[in-house]
Amino acid sequence: MKSLLGLLTVVLASAPVLAQNVVPGPCDKLLLSYAAPLPAKPTWTYTRSLPTGGRVYYFGAEHSQDATHPQFARIKQAFAEVNPTIVLFEGPNRGVDSTAAATIARLGESGYVRFLAKQQHIAVESLENPVAEYQHLKTKFDPEQLKLFYMLREAQRLRTRSHATPEQITKAMEAFLTKSAQVLPGADQVIRSVPELAAAYRKHWPQGGNWWEAPAAWFDPAAASASTGGQFTNDINRASSEFRNAYMYRLIADKARAGQRVFAVVGRNHVPAQAPALDCALSVH
Q1: Listing from the earlier edge strand, what are the strands of the sheet with 45-49?
Q2: Where are the beta strands (DSSP E) in the chain?
Q3: How many CB atoms sit inside 10 A of residue 111's CB?
Q4: 84 and 122 in contact (C-beta within 8 Å)?
Q5: Which stretch is the leader sequence (predicted)?
Q6: 3-state class of 139 per DSSP?
Q7: In this structure, what DSSP letter does residue 37 have?
Q8: Average pLDDT over residues 170-183
Q9: CB 257 within 8 A of CB 54
Q10: Residue 91 and residue 110 in contact, taking contact as beta carbons nearer than 8 Å
């Protein structure tokens, strides 16, 4: 799950190049929909070698900030075996820390793969296109609902994964709101302050408790909003995830077809959802 404040960093730092790779591709139809269940025995790692020398190692990770999680040893071993020329990661580039353990503790698997790349002086690139994603979602959802979704999802992430206090979450929302026009163009006329955030939350969830306590189930793209109580949050997250799946597989395929050895790490459900489309795209030379 990507960070809202990280989203701001990506937008401001890389806006001139974000227009690329958003045109629908012929293999998009093979992406698995979140409305359907994953395969009964999903494969969380995708590998492919091309006759042209390109290669893909696509690792589906559990979101973890525990350096003792066994997946980090697997990532390190695979990284050494693949000897990548480009490393792709989910979410914004929030850098690395001084050690592997500190990087994982603060930045999880996304930070760790950047840490490995930095050690070997290998180029890194995000698998996200937040500007194009937001423009896509704007065509489907109400601006207030969309801004509320982004803010509630980040509050939930900070609360559950970073163990932030309500005060820390509020400060994070205030920091975002000061530059929201740059992050979510056209949304600066709705939810302009934390009190307005609280009011919008009460409007949609009058019995929903505190806005910073929105449950994680509301942001499951495989669930229906009507069943979780999210009203519209699951639907937005599904549309977001499906847009991101399309963008990710195209970027990976483009790099591999160009002869790069691609090492990519994402949340694990993305991998089986994209695998059929990747097979299709990597077969087109």
Answers
A1: 45-49, 55-61, 261-267, 86-89, 123-126
A2: 45-49, 55-61, 86-89, 123-126, 261-267
A3: 23
A4: yes
A5: 1-19
A6: coil
A7: P
A8: 87
A9: yes
A10: yes
Strands 45-49 and 55-61: antiparallel
**Interacting residues of 35 by C-beta distance below 8 A, sequence separation 6+:** 222, 238
Q: Bridge partners of 267?
A: 61
Tell me the torsion sign for CA atoms 31, 36, 39, 45: positive
H-assigned helices in 43-165: 71-82, 100-119, 130-138, 143-160
Query: Which residues on adjacent β-strands are paired with residue 46?
Result: 58
Q: What integer pLDDT is reported at residue 234 of this predicted model?
A: 96
243 contact partners, CB below 8 Å, separation of at least 6: 132, 133, 136, 137
Q: Which residues pair with 75 in a beta bridge?
A: none
Q: What number of residues does the chain have?
A: 285
> Mean pLDDT score of the chain, rounded to an integer?
90
Spatial distance between the Cα atoms of 135 and 138, rounded to a whole number of angstroms: 5
pLDDT tens-digit readout, 88-127:
999 889 999 999 999 999 999 999 999 999 999 999 999 9
Q: Per the structure block, which two tokens stand in for 158? A: 């900070």
Residue type, 150: Y
Residue closest to 205 by CA, chosen among 162, 213, 42, 94:
213
Neighbours of 50 (CB within 10 A): 17
Cβ atoms of 221 and 234 within 8 Å: the answer is yes
Q: Indicate the pTM of the whole model.
A: 0.85
Residue with tokens 């840490």: 115
